[in-house]
């Protein structure tokens, strides 16, 4: 295949076009641009489609808008469709509310290893700060400056260190961090063949921790996580969490406990159950050539 991308960047979205625009602009400001983006859309309305259409001509990478009908929270199904549709051998996952720092893609590609997945980090912002970030702030990178963020409502925290450390100190902090190298939906990456070997995401999973179960099956299959949370940073924009319920979180914890207890690697509720690969409704298919 000509011009195979070095990576496919995947993230989901659902009726957050303003946040989606900031994320797409964040990827336009990357130091490496040899990647494609798949927007795995869990049923958004017309405004999301229009936002992608408006931005597409100015984006320096191809974008595929992979839409599915709105039938409730089906993030894992949207992610599985994106895995099937991806063209690269290496996939980088984030969220549609996370603005990547300019070295986000380059760092994931530089640190990738056979038989490992990478576990990245994020920096959560309050709503006022999230709204204050504009296109020029993203293009210049100043939205990652701690002082700039504090002037716009972000409270001081020891976690601010993630925004200011260089690669060497970041490596050391990742080395000594007690945090588990879990699959984090806001910033994780892995080899496509490893993701397919565990049959992708379990589509039974509901809102709250659904990404972690995927990483636990990868680990059971011998694909261990590697912490890079101090070396890959994304700004997590605030948003409502309407799908977060005690019932959904309890259900997910039960499935995760089963995965850990049984050491299972494969889910019967993932990609391979499909009789046909993911398809695009013609009116929602966006290809790089359509921008010309």
From TrEMBL:
Residues 265-276 have a biased composition (Basic and acidic residues). Keywords: Transferase. InterPro entries: Galactosyl_T_C (IPR027791), Glyco_trans_2-like (IPR001173), Glycosyltransf_2 (IPR050834), Nucleotide-diphossugar_trans (IPR029044). Transmembrane segments: none annotated. Residues 8-109 form the Glycosyltransferase 2-like domain. GO terms for molecular function: transferase activity. Residues 191-232 form the Galactosyltransferase C-terminal domain. Residues 261-292 are annotated as: Disordered. This is Glycosyl transferase family 2. It comes from Xanthomonas boreopolis.
């Amino acid at each position: 295949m000509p011009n195979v991308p070095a990576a496919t960047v995947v993230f989901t979205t659902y009726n957050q076009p303003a946040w989606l625009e900031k994320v797409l602009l964040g990827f336009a400001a990357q130091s490496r641009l040899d990647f494609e983006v798949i927007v795995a859309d869990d049923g958004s309305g017309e405004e999301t489609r229009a936002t992608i259409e408006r931005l597409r001509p100015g984006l320096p990478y191809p974008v595929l808008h992979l839409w599915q009908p709105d039938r409730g929270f089906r993030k894992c199904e949207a992610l599985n469709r994106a895995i099937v549709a991806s063209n690269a051998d290496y996939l980088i996952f984030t969220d549609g509310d996370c603005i990547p720092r300019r070295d986000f893609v380059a760092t994931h590609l530089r640190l990738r290893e056979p038989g490992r997945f990478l576990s990245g980090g994020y920096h959560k912002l309050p709503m006022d700060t999230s709204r204050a970030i504009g296109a020029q702030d993203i293009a210049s990178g100043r939205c990652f400056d701690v002082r700039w963020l504090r002037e716009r409502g972000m409270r001081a925290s020891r976690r601010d260190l993630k925004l200011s450390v260089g690669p060497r100190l970041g490596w050391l902090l990742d080395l000594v961090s007690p945090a588990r190298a879990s699959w984090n939906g806001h910033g994780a990456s892995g080899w496509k063949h490893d993701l397919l070997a565990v049959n992708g995401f379990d589509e039974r999973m509901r809102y709250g921790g659904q990404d972690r179960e995927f990483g636990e099956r990868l680990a059971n299959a011998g694909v261990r996580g590697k912490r890079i949370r101090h070396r890959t940073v994304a700004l997590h924009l605030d948003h409502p969490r309407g799908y977060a319920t005690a019932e959904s979180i309890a259900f997910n914890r039960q499935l995760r406990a089963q995965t850990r207890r049984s050491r299972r690697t494969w889910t019967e509720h993932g990609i391979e159950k499909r009789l046909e690969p993911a398809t695009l409704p013609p009116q929602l298919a966006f290809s790089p050539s359509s921008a010309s």
